[in-house]
Amino acid sequence: MSKRLIALAVLASVSSAAALAKDKGVEPALSISSLDMLAGEWALSIAYANGATATGTRICAPALGGVYIRCDTSVTFGDDDKTARKSINYINFNARRGVFEDVAMWQFPPAKKIMDVKGDPQSGKMSARGYIYSGEASPARRIMETWSINKNKITVTVKSNLVSQRADEWPVFFTETMMK
Description:
Radius of gyration: 20 Å
Mean pLDDT: 83
Distance between the termini: 59 Å
Number of strands: 10
Low-confidence stretches: 1-24
Order of helices and strands: HEEEEEEEEEE
CATH class of the largest domain: Mainly Beta
Helix content: 10-25%
CATH superfamily of the largest domain: Calycin beta-barrel core domain
Number of helices: 1
CATH architecture of the largest domain: Beta Barrel
């Protein structure tokens, strides 16, 4: 009998806490569905700090049973031979750590990016930190991104820091704009 009473009390307190959080306007927990706004086709433009430009498309959709969002990107550089360069991103939400994790792989030059993305997309701002690894002879590049999110436009400012640079030296590497 006492076990039933304890179970009932626990259930009542959990229900009360949930109702109280809802009444106080507490934001729901983040999940991969928090990034549903990424789904769809985006026109992409990139402006590099050195003056180079690139344009292309990014198509994002739920993947692997909705656990990830997969984004396939194809860009062509303005001064290039018009050969499309491709990349793939997989983004998931790590509930234990409370962060989104973004892993990207590029076709040319072969490279991968691994970063943690923090913040709530509903707030319109997110930030990310991680590394780009490319080739055995290249040093790792530290990456810091700031995401500005609107309904049909996302702007990502990417700053980089080579391991040979001072820890406080974060120049803009490029700015990427996605438009639906």
